[in-house]
Specification:
There is one protein chain. With about 210 residues, the chain is α/β, with parallel strands linked by helices. The protein has a single domain (about 5-214), classed as Aldolase class I (TIM Barrel, Alpha-Beta Barrel). It is built from nine helices and eight strands. The chain has helices spanning about 15-25, 40-60, 70-75, 90-95, 110-115, 140-155, 170-175, 185-190, 195-214; strands at about 5-10, 30-35, 60-65, 80, 100-105, 120-125, 160, 180-185. It has an eight-stranded parallel beta barrel, surrounded by five helices. Helix 4 (about 90-95) links the parallel strand 4 (about 80) and strand 5. The longest helix is centred in the C-terminal third of the chain and has 21 residues, at about 195-214. It is globular, with a radius of gyration of 16 Å.
């Protein structure tokens, strides 16, 4: 299964704004978007997930839902991203269609190892940079943290970096062995940055491929 190198994680001050931003991301060339609306009822999430599915289907963009794996099956989303530790990937895997993607968030080497054993399709390793410090929030991993974890894992499971990433960070992040990136703020601020991100990510993969065959 090929996992997209760029994940747009939706942002917005309202569910409607999330959908508008997803539409802008799709029209700007995003190959995968994650609907990440927090603190609304399951019934409302289902409504907005259906609308997001319509938007992404129109653009032939992959849609990943945040945590709501039952709704992901219901609307035939392309997959689910599990952030909460009370959602077990194994349970979601048994519930979802075999073709649906399951990703999950990790902040430590141990968490990555657990997720790899549970056979997730990708791991989002976060945060790259620290934002507003909250109680119990994980510390920033930075390039050093990514290098240490990726080297220790030696896994085929794609590791996606996220957390305050800008276009200026991409080259150095990929040099650590990371497979791709998840971005919210930088893309929401300027949807044209998707083209820049894609170019940086694809140039790197083309270089790797060339080196393999040289």
């Amino acid at each position: 299964m090929i996992i997209s190198k760029l994940h747009y994680i939706s942002q917005g001050n309202s569910p409607e704004e999330h959908l508008l931003n997803i539409q802008k991301a799709c029209s700007s060339g995003a190959e995968l978007v994650q609907l990440r609306i927090k603190n609304i009822s399951e019934k409302k999430y289902l409504k907005f997930a259906k609308e997001a599915r319509e938007i992404t289907s129109h653009f032939q963009t992959r849609l990943i839902l945040n945590d709501h794996y039952k709704i992901a099956k219901d609307i035939k989303a392309d997959g689910v991203h599990l952030e909460k530790t009370d959602f077990c990937p194994t349970v979601a895997m048994e519930y979802l269609y075999t073709w649906q993607i399951i990703g999950a968030t990790a902040s430590t080497l141990n968490q990555c190892e657990v997720l790899i054993n549970k056979k997730v399709d990708y791991i989002r390793l976060s945060p790259f940079k620290s934002g507003i410090k909250k109680d119990n929030s994980p510390i920033a991993l930075g390039l050093k943290g990514y290098t240490v974890i990726v080297d220790a894992l030696k896994t085929e499971t794609p590791i996606i970096a996220s957390g305050g990433i800008t276009t200026l960070d991409v080259k150095d992040i990929l040099a650590t062995g990371i497979s791709g990136i998840g971005v919210s703020e930088e893309i929401t601020r300027d949807f044209n940055s998707i083209k820049t991100f894609n170019k940086l990510l694809n140039t790197s993969s083309a270089d790797e491929l060339r080196h393999t065959f040289e």
